[in-house]
Amino acid sequence: MIFDKLCSIAEKTPPEKNMFETLSKTRLFHFDTELTKDVLDSELPGGTGSFFLPFRHTAIEDNSTCIVFSDTEKKQVGMSGARSFMLLTDMNRLIKHLGLKDLPGLYAYSQGTFKNIKSKMLGNRLKWTLSHEIKSSMYVDKSGFSESLSEALLGPEEHKAGLIKAIVETILVPVISLAAVNLPTNFILETSDTKKKKTSKKRLLRAHQRPSYTILTPAKIRKKMRLPDTSSSIGKHSKGPHERRSHIRYLSHEFYSKKGEKKKKYIDHGPRKGQAYYKKIIVKSTWIGPNEAVRGTRRYKVLIDR
After folding, report:
1. What's the pTM?
2. CA angle (101, 107, 111) in 5-degree steps
3. Per-residue pLDDT reduced to its tens digit, 184-213
4. What spatial distance separates the first Cα and last Cα of the chain, rounded to whole Å?
5. I want to staple 232 with a disulfide (CB 3.0 to 4.6 A). Which of 99, 147, 183, 228 is the partner?
6. Cα separation of 224 and 219, whole Å?
7. How far apart are CA 244 and CA 263, in angstroms?
8. Which DSSP string do the residues of 250-280 spell out, in sequence order?
9. How far apart, in whole angstroms, are the C-alpha atoms of residue 66 and residue 90?
């Protein structure tokens, strides 16, 4: 797994780079379906202003890529502020953008920040943009970090353009996919092993040793946890485990305006677009009934708050 490769690199990296510390706090996120560029054709659920990472350090991986996103502020919300990323990519995927021959056993490592993710319609297509700063790009072989990608890929200018395009695309697709957390129909399910894992201060837990997280609807959660559905009656008036959905509440009374500030804001999306308000709050979702279950050697837990 690419995440495990990133852990092994961090264990050989000087502490001042903070890779080891970041990965020790990182939660590994999975999706029910394969991530594709199709998500770039859709608007962000809830708009960019309400976006948040499920965890302060969130890792997402597929067959050839692992990216770790990190908030730079406590409980960071929105897409205007900077977030950092660490990206490890199998070079054989990266070279599809560069037109080079196969480079077996090599990985591309990039690290930097991104912010100001925006979208606009160009013709019939939705165009996504972001501001980014790539602080370092190296390639990694069996011995660890090697020369910079810019040195390794010296040549036509389109190589550099292809490299930037690959990195930007690899940031956008999982970030926009993570916005599904904002949907009031979804919850985060934690899956972990009931057996305790041996830990070492010098070695990072690998993917199979960590809890994994995914975004699921309540119906899929109940099925996985083998809980009764909402039509099941436990008592005379009670239902099976179910959700109370998260939602945004817009406060329009002058009581909620900032001291000395009378200027209103306006909702920029959804059926209430254009409605004026002073303050926006997020009413957190709640899970009613059992939110944890053990099935065999697996423990499942519905997370109400990140």
Report:
1. 0.75
2. 125
3. 678 889 999 988 777 788 899 999 999 999
4. 25
5. 228
6. 9
7. 33
8. EE-SGGGSPTT----EE--SSTTTT-EESEE
9. 9
